[in-house]
Amino acid sequence: ELKDDTIIIVLGASGDLAKKKTFPALFGLYRMGFLPKDVHIVGYARTKMDEAEFHKRETSYLKVPDNDEETAKKVEEFKSFSTYVSGGYEDAESFKNLNKHLDEIEGKYQGSGRNRLFYLALPPSVFITVGKGLRENCYATGINRIIVEKPFGKDTDSCRELLGSLKQHWTEDETFRIDHYLGKEMVKNILVLRFANVALTSGWDKNSISNVQITFKEPFGTEGRGGYFDEFGIIRDILQNHLLQVLSILTMERPVSFSAEDIRDEKVKVLRAIPPIQREDTLLGQYVAANGKPGYLDDDTVPHNSVCPTFAATTLWINNPRWEGVPFILKAGKAVNEAKVEIRIQYKDVTQGIFKDIARNELVIRIQPTESIYLKLNTKTPGLYTRALPIEMDLTYKRRFADTKIPEAYESLILDALKGDHSNFVRDDELDVAWKIFTPILHWIEGRNGPAPRPVPYPYGSRGPKELDPFIQKYGFRRSDQG
Ligand code: BG6
């Protein structure tokens, strides 16, 4: 349930995340009528500016199309309940000053609630001091919640340290750790697809499925954020969180109920059945200049000899009765040929069949862009002879749900946090197992126990390293002529 009288405080209000995601999502929710009654939004950052300047910036984050008067009117309304406070991230005085502002706003409320949702759109270096400062100086009498987002450390130990420090101030129940992939429509759909369809449930195991790929592709490089990226690399940026989250929902057993704890219990259980990734199951790449685009190392903020991977493919195994022996290939690449995130489940060959050399069935869930689900089947070629023809049963959202606006991940997640629903947020123990799977391979990549491996080069704008096709074929993937 939504609590009236809530203040949403966005810390890091002039940063990239706030600009690109948080404010547009808050506005989207407001426009659709999903923000609580009497909501108030407070931006907080170090930059000193008056309210007029803040409102000007806020408007620019919301990108209202010209001549769209209705939206422009909504923006004006949105600004009327947004204010700004500037202050530091380290000192108690700043937080006391923020609290004074929050108290003043709450003084105007008629209701009895005093609810605060703190959104930390901040770099991890200040998570702990801000968490502490807010808890000690800005804690309200009603419900308090805090939203944080990755990176949650760099390996098992550093993650535990970070979580431990935050836990001194905020309980698990008050903490909402975002993995924004959990807010994406098609990721949320996995639960329904899997557990509301007998047709899919029955073949969802090693007996029917040959291999699974979860793929992330982005057609641009790390230009502009090379400094951050070089410290983390593609595995921490995408695989350890976004793709592993998708994998866990795809493979977990049926939760006892739809509740957050039951769902997350099952996710943790399946993740615990995944042993740490092996070097021989891993392919690393780094993009080089091509087609007039710069290589990864051409970025001034990247060390000239960096071996940081911008592409990784790695195969995970799940040691439980349902999935033993099925390879799950996670792959992610920056600066490749297209933007695409999808799950591809490839079924086994038809055995002992009367049909020879026919395409395998595949179920593809396209997460983005152009959300869709399609199932590759063989059907009889229409006509006076019998021949199997591979076709696609295609559920493209744009066609089937043409009038429905698909919500943004951040809209969905902020609404969940306002309601106190943890289902689509990452629990502490879930993070811990996720890091255990990836920590050894990450330490190897960083050369902690021997020379660091060299990623193979691939041209900017290509499909990825040329070693990729043999890599996925090694795990049984068979390309059908449908590509
Ligand atoms: C972020 C990564 O978590 O996800 C970025 O840090 C990446 O490198 C982004 O570009 C992708 O998100 P989306 O929603 O555009 O797929």
TrEMBL record:
Read off the PROSITE patterns from this record: G6P_DEHYDROGENASE (PS00069)
Q: Which GO terms describe its biological process?
A: glucose metabolic process; pentose-phosphate shunt, oxidative branch
Record's PANTHER family? GLUCOSE-6-PHOSPHATE 1-DEHYDROGENASE, GLUCOSE-6-PHOSPHATE 1-DEHYDROGENASE G6PD
Name of the protein this chain belongs to: Glucose-6-phosphate 1-dehydrogenase
Alphabetized, the UniProt keywords read:
Carbohydrate metabolism, Glucose metabolism, NADP, Oxidoreductase
Q: Name one GO cellular component term.
A: cytosol
Q: Does the keyword Lipid metabolism feature in the UniProt annotation?
A: no
Pathway involvement of the protein, from the record: Carbohydrate degradation; pentose phosphate pathway; D-ribulose 5-phosphate from D-glucose 6-phosphate (oxidative stage): step 1/3
Query: What is the native source organism of this protein?
Result: Rickenella mellea
